[in-house]
Amino acid sequence: MAQIQVEIHEEIGNLSESKGWKKQLTYTSWNNHAPKFDIRSWNEDHSSMTKGITLNKEELMKLKEILNTVDFDKYE
After folding, report:
1. What's the CATH number where 35 sits?
2. What is the dihedral of CA 60, 62, 66, 67, to 10 degrees?
3. Rounded to 5 degrees, what angle do the CA atoms 12, 17, 22 make?
4. Which ranges carry the Transcriptional coactivator p15 (PC4) C-terminal domain (predicted)?
5. Residue 53 belongs to what domain range?
6. Is residue 53 within 8 Å of residue 60, measured between CB atoms?
7. Residue numbers of the chain with a pLDDT score lower than 50
8. Where does residue 38 rank: exposed (0-12), middle (13-18), buried (19+ CB within 10 A)?
9. Is residue 1 part of a domain?
């Protein structure tokens, strides 16, 4: 199986932490492509990861716009 090349350009923020794994928003490039925004869990030294979601700038801005309209009080 081919090796995935990952370079985290910036750790933007931690969303949660559990058992040494941090769910983070990062700015990351995959296989030498242009960096994108990425949400996934990483182990402490970023050598292992879970499945996640990768967004370009426009998608992340749209997500921010959507989240700003959500009434979170109606959800448990």
Report:
1. 2.30.31.70
2. 20
3. 50
4. 19-66
5. 6-74
6. no
7. none
8. buried
9. no
Question: 7 is written with which tokens?
Answer: 């370079």
**Cβ atoms 43, 20 nearer than 8 A:** yes
Q: Is 44 helix (H, G, I), strand (E, B) or coil?
A: coil
Predicted pLDDT at 53: 98
Neighbours of 24 (CB within 10 A): 22
Return the pLDDT at 20.
93
Nearest C-alpha neighbor of 40 from the set 56, 19, 54:
54
- Look up residue 68 and give its two tokens: 């700003």
pTM as predicted: 0.89
